[in-house]
Amino acid sequence: MTLQPKHTKISREIGFFIATSKEDLADCTHIKDAVFFKEQGISKQVIYDTEDKTAIHILMKYNNSPSGYGRIVLLGSKAKLGRIAVLQKYRGKGLGKELVKFMIKQAIRYNINEIFIHAQYYLLKFYQELGFQENGEPFEEANIKHIEMSLKV
Ligand SMILES: CC(C)(COP(=O)(O)OP(=O)(O)OC[C@H]1O[C@@H](n2cnc3c(N)ncnc32)[C@H](O)[C@@H]1OP(=O)(O)O)[C@@H](O)C(=O)NCCC(=O)NCCS
């Protein structure tokens, strides 16, 4: 088991936190509710699934305000990134990319050889720019077009 820093600040503006406290986890829930439930209309049953129990929950803060979320699920030799979200008012500043880069760095601290994601299809370019490659054909998940993408590490 690799030790990981609980708090990592990569610049004055952006901070990444491994959320374990009640407060940090509540901030994560707020972001998921705002983005996936309110904005994208995905049911809470789908958003909050059993993988949450074992996932590493990443909270991103921008100028000390909760602004983004993503989770890492370790599955043997693979890590699955998911639920990646940036609150609407913080988008378009490059925060989403920084969040995924941080999640990749965290994931490779474990003994894995591949990182994969069920990407919303409209974000194909976003994930390609981060080094992910498409696997197979697009599919529907939560009534949204997705594609599996992976990164060998
Ligand atoms: C996807 C998301 C996390 C990106 O966050 P962000 O902070 O705006 O991302 P960045 O500022 O780092 O964007 C970088 C690139 O992402 C791509 N991108 C971001 N939003 C996009 C959109 N709505 N449509 C298409 N491409 C998009 C662009 O290529 C952009 O590059 P550009 O700035 O050169 O145009 C954010 O839009 C979000 O939370 N969306 C809703 C939830 C979601 O769909 N999550 C993905 C689940 S797989």
Rounded to the nearest angstrom, the radius of gyration is 15 Å
Low-confidence stretches: none
CATH architecture of the domain at 7-113: 3-Layer(aba) Sandwich
> Which CATH class of the domain at 7-113 applies here?
Alpha Beta
SS-based structural class? alpha+beta
What proportion of the residues form beta strands (DSSP E)? 35-45%
What is the CATH topology assignment of the domain at 7-113? Aminopeptidase
Number of helices: 4
Largest sheet: spatial strand order: 1-2-3-4-5-6-8-7
Query: What would you call the shape?
Result: globular
Q: Residue share in helices?
A: 25-40%
**CA(first)-CA(last) distance:** 18 Å
State the fourth-level CATH superfamily of the domain at 7-113: Gcn5-related N-acetyltransferase (GNAT)
**Which small molecules are bound?**
coenzyme A
The largest pleated sheet is described as: 8 strands, mixed
Count the beta strands.
8
SSE pattern, N- to C-terminal: EEHHEEEHEHEE
User: What is the average per-residue confidence, as pLDDT, rounded to a whole number?
Assistant: 93
Describe this structure in words.
With about 150 residues, this protein is α+β, with helices and mostly antiparallel strands. The protein has a domain at about 5-115: Gcn5-related N-acetyltransferase (GNAT) (Aminopeptidase, 3-Layer(aba) Sandwich), CATH 3.40.630. About 25% of the residues lie in helices and about 40% in strands. The chain contains four helices and eight strands; from the N terminus they run ββααβββαβαββ. Strands 1-2-3-4-5-6-8-7 form an eight-stranded mixed sheet, with helices on both faces. A hairpin with a 2-residue loop joins strand 7 and strand 8. The two termini are about 20 Å apart. The relative contact order is 0.14. The model has no long low-confidence stretch (mean pLDDT about 95). The protein binds coenzyme A. The site of coenzyme A has 17 residues, from strand 5, helix 3, strand 6 and helix 4.
